[in-house]
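quick one, 200 residues, struct below
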Amino acid sequence: VDNSKLEKMLLEVVSEKTGYPSEMLELSMDMEADLGIDSIKRVEIFGALTQQYPDMADINPTELTELRTLGEIVNYVAAKGNPTVTSQSVPTPTPVVEKVLSVPEQTLEATVNIDNSQLEKMLLEVVSEKTGYPSEMLELGMDMEADLGIDSIKRVEIFGALTQQYPEMSDINPSELTELRTLGEIVSYVSEASKKKVLA
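---
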């Protein structure tokens, strides 16, 4: 993870979400005290950064809530990103990686096909947690807004929680998800998106 690029990206995202011009922002600023960034805005900022840095999808958002300043986020993400970089630069494991890479096509196809029921279960659990409705009461045909009162902010939170379980979802543009109305449509969309990724 390139620190200066990450800093620039973070400041741009924070500027967009808070309305403060990015040149006014400093890495030492306290997100809550100085910028009024609440937990929902943090999730949105984290979601936007994950789009640019898919390896961030493995980071637990609850750990981010403990960070107070913008600089702490940069350091935290950089520290998380670096281990992968260093392990790649060590030449010895390369042949092992190649052997592993020659297998996965079938395994990936298989997991994508199996995943639908698991994905449905995961989605219902996340929606239940975010809305307070018991998961056994939820159905895939329900309209998120009309039946469950899920607004755009809740969608971002649900999407963020799913991305934790399915890192390949970090490539999906959240704005496309806003066009999906039912829970079933989200399952189909995510499943299709991960299939495309496998084929690609």
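The first helix runs from residue 3 to 18.
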